[in-house]
Amino acid sequence: MTIAPTRHILGTPIDDAVFEQLESEVRIYCRKFPAVLHRAQGAEVFAEDGRSFIDFFCGAGTLNFGHNHPFIKSRLVEYLAGDGLMHGLDMYTVAKRVFLQTFAEVVLQPRGLDYKIQFCGPTGTDSVEAALKLARKATDRRGMIAFTGAFHGMSRGSLAVTGSRRARRAGSATQQDVTFIPYEDGPLGGFDSIGLIERLLADTSSGADLPAAVIVEPMQMEGGVYPASVGWLRELRAVTEKYGVLLIADEIQVGCGRTGDFFAFEHAGIVPDIVTVSKSISGFGLPLSLALFRRQLDVWEPGEHTGTFRGNQLAFVAATAACQLWQQPSFQAQVATTTGLLDQFRVDLVSETGVRTRGRGAAVGIDLGRTDGPERAARVQQFAFDNGLIVELSGRQDEVVKLLPPLNIEPDLLQIGLGLLRDALRLPSPAPSR
Ligand code: PLP
Fold first, then answer.
1. Which end of the chain is flanked by fewer CB atoms within 10 Å, N or C?
2. pLDDT score of 327 more than 90
3. Domain 70-325, CATH 3.30.1490.20 — does that match?
4. Which CATH entry fits the domain spanning 7-68+329-425: 3.40.50.2300, 3.90.1150.10, 3.40.50.11810, 1.20.1250.20?
5. Is the CB of 275 under 6 A from ligand 1?
6. What does the pLDDT read at residue 167?
7. Which of 278, 288, 290 to mutate to test the pocket of ligand 1 (most atoms within 8 A of CB)?
């Protein structure tokens, strides 16, 4: 095997030949962010060549508590040093017991949520698969209602309720009894989704059988950062309840504090029947994926939906520490500071540049679709990266710059990152080529 010569990006040598030669073409983020990362702390990531980056991407919402939070890390180190059990299938373990107790005390009980907890395979799509399967089994119905712009994961069942044609094509997703309804808002404008759902469910000749469930992201992130309004979520809950259809809230990207509340559906005061949680639940980037559901829906037979990696003990230890951190007043104060600064940034940006922004809490989208579109968004991302900021794009055509900084980012670092974005948004458009 011949190893390709070292590449240079902006004059910096990048030792990435082995990735290019051996890693599948499917890799994606490394193409947008060409650096070989090595260490990380808080909101900062360091490459082996000495460059450092402020992280406004946070593993697509996996690192709400930042990188290597010292409190969570200390619990993990303690557990490893004590030869804590590392794998136990779904056997009872001390780490799992402590997590269940803590999660119930910190998250479920204060919100009056009487949910059972299912540990799914390691990643987000595994909890979506479990949620869809459980909804079908519990209702003895096949159909699902999903929304345009939705993203629920890349395995087959999740793809069937995902909107993106590009994602669906590669997975040869079938409709699998899914009816897509336009989301409350999107690039084509607002839509009376609830009215259409009501019509479909009320009319016994609508051509749509009563579905098992409606699956919704309380705030669509991959679709372009569209937060659903309180009224819309309440009406969705009401119409699903009226027709005995289950409501699945996908909290995988916007849960675990991202919007300022622990769950993004909370501010609407609704209680979904099933909730999917993953990404930031371990608070440390360790894989863990949960389906939460009303006690009465727990119709599983033992072992009916199983898998090897459904009990990541280290993730339990980290998730317990993350719950403890979440309830600390000092942490809550940091979240309030971050969301306050982001709110102000949005107000200033709109008055300075006229671009549209959307978001809630520490999840913000800067929509460049109406101005210069995806090319401008790509230029913003590139400028940001070249100047030490990692920021991802979302939306149908990657026209939205998506900000997901750590909830507890130091205000100074947040301001530096936001300043870089302002500079990037002021970049002149390149002259049209002849
Ligand atoms: N659901 C939502 C809302 C997501 O944002 C994602 C991933 O970004 C998933 C499901 C799938 O999670 P995973 O990529 O961990 O399978």
1. C
2. yes
3. no
4. 3.90.1150.10
5. no
6. 83
7. 278
